[in-house]
DNA sequence: CGTTACATTGAACATATTCAAAACGAGTGG
DNA sequence: CCACTCGTTTTGAATATGTTCAATGTAACG
């Protein structure tokens, strides 16, 4: 077992609490900084391929990614079906409140740091603090909105547009969290991307080479460099 | 202008307040039955093709469908892109809380009855009533969960599976709201279905005839009769 | 009836998958 | 430092799936 912290520091990007999607005003460590045990699980390290949650587990806490990358998936006929990638600042679990059971499994794609947000504590805060309540409604509403947009993407877009959108969405998610860079390191394999996008790895590969031929980006294994951002956006949006 | 109420009664299905997705315990008319003006807009009639909300309008109320059918859509390069159909018991607007602006337009597919749930009043109730608060969280969480499932459908399913799933989801939505019937009247055109599913009307048509050949259902214009429900489910799920 | 809008069918074409083979790259041992 | 291996990625050719365009059918409504 290697030194997890070192690996994370050297290779991964972490989000500051100010740019976290949760925001510092709802962050458990900041709000409950007198209750030591809740702070303990902040920036908790998990290693690559570690399963953090198994589908069906009781939901007693949400997870917020501080550094690294996670994926969520359900298991269909023995095969894992990825339904989301989560990057620094993202929160996992909001879709499971209604059943109080995690409806998908969560696995670390790379060594990562995650914060935990206890469900009961959050609900107590929601009752006490209007701002926390509104923030949570806003977070959930944003999620619904984002997922509806994603439905549109998947229902309407062809393979090229899906791959283009995927790369661009990674870029913009990092950018929104304060990490503006045209160099992206994919934390997931081509297989994971294909699985998530509903395409084959061969198609992903072919489209990436096509994008290189068009001078939109360069793809060298897991390292992607965007050469022409407007062209990437057009590639992802235009077409039909 | 025809008699709207008559048309609705004769052709459409309405949901009782008990089976509404909102539930009677959070229903504005029931909770605020002393404030007359909030009750006024309950079961308000809208006629076919009427635009109830324009994209970008301030969100001051949610809409709950009591009878009929509505669609939501965004406008992309002048063309309407449908992103949801709403049936009795459904609620519209939860994805717009974060911006307090409706992020899509809402139009009636048929003459319909809709209830209105005022945003401010709901938020006041949320502060006063834990049950209302939890119901709202649950509703939103369910929405996120359902949309995530829909993303999986669209990202993974081919044309046959999409159409199968579409028919089946109509059946089960009606069934969950207490209207169990193998006869479904589509309130939307083939064009709307195609637009929503990201397919062409020709493909929809071909798949419907294929399903008839397989004795899964009969499709006579807008009237669909499911002949073999397990086969329909298999048609929508199996394949890949 | 005849018009109009909507739905179905057919044939040619485009897009993505499948299967097979080759190339690459990180890690291991000589 | 080079050769070897395993797993991943890329490339190629054949096939399947869905679209496009054009023609035909059908149902609702004046």
UniProtKB/TrEMBL annotation, chains A, B:
Domain Cyclic nucleotide-binding: 32-93
SUPFAM superfamilies per record: cAMP-binding domain-like, Winged helix' DNA-binding domain
Coiled-coil regions, chain positions: none
A molecular-function term among this protein's GO annotations: DNA binding
A Gene Ontology term for the protein's cellular component: cytosol
One Pfam assignment: HTH_Crp_2
SMART domains with a match to the protein in the record: cNMP (SM00100), HTH_CRP (SM00419)
Domain HTH crp-type: 157-230
Key words, A-Z: DNA-binding, Transcription, Transcription regulation
PANTHER family the record matches: CRP FAMILY TRANSCRIPTIONAL REGULATORY PROTEIN, FUMARATE AND NITRATE REDUCTION REGULATORY PROTEIN
Descriptive protein name: Transcriptional regulator FNR
Organism this protein belongs to: Frischella perrara
